[in-house]
Amino acid sequence: MDADTDLASSLSPPDPIPCDADAHAISRRGLLIAGAGASAAVAAGAPLDAAAQPAARSVPSPQENLVASTRVTLTVNGQSHTLVVDNRTSLLDLLREHLQLTGTKKGCDHGQCGACTIHLDGRRVNACLTLAVMHEGAAITTIEGLGTPEKLHPMQSAFVRHDGYQCGYCTPGQICSAVAVLDEIKAGQPSHVTPDLSARPLLSIDELRERMSGNLCRCGAYSNIIDAMAEVAGVPVPGAGDRRPA
Amino acid sequence: MKPFTFERAPSPAAAVAAAARQPGARFIAGGTNLLDLMKLQIETPAHLIDVNGLGLDRIEPTTEGGLRIGALVRNTDLAADPRVRRDYGVLSRALLAGASGQLRNRATTAGNLLQRTRCPYFYDTDQPCNKRRPGSGCSAIGGMSRSLAVIGVSDACIAQHPSDMAVAMRLLDATVETSRANGAPRRIPIADFHRLPGDTPHIETVLEPGELITAVTLPRPLGGTQLYHKVRDRASYAFALVSVAAVIQRDGSGRFAVGGIAPKPWRVEAAEAALRQGAASAARLVLAGARPTADNAFKLPLVERTLAAVLAQASTSGRTA
Q: Which of A136, A151, A192, B139 could form a disulfide with B96 if both were Cys (CB 3.0 to 4.6 A apart)?
């Protein structure tokens, strides 16, 4: 077991390429978070020059003597962060555990429920099913970056108005997804229920429902979620007046 | 998840070289299936090679009048491409019937072909599974097999291939382009790409260790009415029980492939000659040699009925077109 050594004292200049297994080992607990632009040293092992590796180099077993951390720089809600993380860190865990952005929720952690939906380079993705180290240079928006309590995103305030939640756990993912869904329709991306692939998709309740199928709500707030989305999108909802809270 | 080392490959050549240096390495692109399996320790690579920076993300016309789809083209982009929507509608439809918007934004063309089965026993690491642990036995045979394969199966494995996209690719006679470990390119017809389980169900494709998919090419468009009909337990975001991809011409001739019933996209060219005699004849031929379990025998009539629905829709569209 590696000690949690003072990483900064043993650092070579930052290198974006993975740490050599034989170089300074970084314990998994020794994760270092360096703020954007901070002068704090960034943990990295010795440079790994792929071409310089002997062809028959022995590979350590995964369990022992392995430097399994990588440096990554990414922008979250407009702020740049440079971190060294265990390679296994999902983008979701980076947001929640390293940046303390706990608005994004961990539901199933297997890409099935959509609670962890965020915007990655402008597209909605499940943050649980991608590794943080795969996103060097990426721009991420989480629910915290979409709006603030003082200045809600229109989709956030529509969810409030339409009571688009009960327990609220899936809500950040629902809202991030809902915002992206309207953009996808606007961009002309077809869906499973688009009747004609040669035409632009129509803004309809059927389209909204189909496109939101990757976001599960155990409380069953679906109809109010669709009402909120429809309001933001300007789609008339048949019978919505009956369901809408005062 | 087991610890692993990680590197970002800057080019296809570098990716293949990295894989050759690191036995036990895996390429990672979208990661939507691989990471799921790594979290469950069903996949335990010692090294990951991130191929997202290889630049294989374009869709280009080929000199033969078809399309070359880069290995890293995301499912969303492939389904939305105007050329695919116009000339290969069945491919757009199959993609849009699969997964969720979030997953399609990450999942890639090559990764989709390499998806692993969703057999519940493959996923349950407490149970024997010949695919996950060769030689340990098959829990699905005699277990819960409702979603599993009815044809192309063996005594070692009855897992089904989960992909929708691959069914359309098989229908369209796509070709998988690769770079072998020594850097040599290879072209593999999609019909030969996936292997049947036999007594080695853990070997699912003909790819060699370290071989990298670089593109999938489509031949010239087929015209006709192109349809993908997926039958599943939910209206959205569920794997197929049965799916039928078809291209039907005005004279009633055409071709079809079936998903959800076999360890690979299932197409029997000889059955296509019977399409004009109707769904029953064609379904009988495509299902010849089927070995269903009591739990999934319903898939046999379901294939016929799904095909009948597709033919009926094609005939309606053909009249109005």
A: A192
